[in-house]
Amino acid sequence: MMINEIIKHKEKKTCYFCSQAAKEIDYKDVEILKRFLSASYKIKKRKHTGLCSFHQRKFAKAVKRARQMALLPFLP
Question: For residues 2 and 59, which has the higher predicted lDDT (pLDDT)?
């Protein structure tokens, strides 16, 4: 077997918010925000979530706003 056959290429994930055609990320929609948070409520990296850089920045800002409004906890 050749080495190239052994190595599998991962498919590039598409951005969830781009596929939903969302212009803004609502900080009040906690269920969608929790989808991209870890079990300890930390913001996951782009590599794990598959978000584009534009929506990753918007998502981080929405999470920070939700934490300030006590919709999401700072600590688990």
Answer: 59
